[in-house]
Amino acid sequence: MLRTIRPATLLKAFALAAFAFVAAPAAAPAQVVPGPVVYEAATAEEAAEVAGATRVQLPAVGIGLAVIGGGIGIGLIGFAATGAMARQPDVAGQIQTAMIIAAVLIEGATIIGLVFCLIV
């Protein structure tokens, strides 16, 4: 049987994960730097190279977010539709039609997001 997660439990898990993420660097041993660190000023070529790398990496993050969002949306639609079909099997055809239409709309929005990320 499928259990639902209560919002309070989810909030506690998120708070624990955030605390562990913040506290982990404090628990790590300090690193010893052998001598003074000297940073040189970046040349224009190096700055352009870093900007170019960022320009390539940010659309990849956008593509990942679009795909994750679409996957979550379609997963929630499938979850709700199968639950509704289990409760009312006599209207399963209508529920399935509505589910497919909603999934197509989500996929369309995801593909548009992917195209925008690839264009930029």
Automatic annotation (TrEMBL):
Record-level GO cellular component terms: plasma membrane; proton-transporting ATP synthase complex; proton-transporting two-sector ATPase complex, proton-transporting domain
Membrane topology: Multi-pass membrane protein
Domain of life per record: Bacteria
Keyword field: ATP synthesis, Cell membrane, CF(0), Hydrogen ion transport, Ion transport, Lipid-binding, Membrane, Signal, Transmembrane, Transmembrane helix, Transport
Residues annotated as signal peptide: 1-30
Cellular localisation: Cell membrane; Membrane
Cited Pfam families: ATP-synt_C
Family of this protein: Belongs to the ATPase C chain family.
Official protein name in the record: ATP synthase subunit c
Organism: Alienimonas californiensis
Taxonomic placement: Bacteria, Pseudomonadati, Planctomycetota, Planctomycetia, Planctomycetales
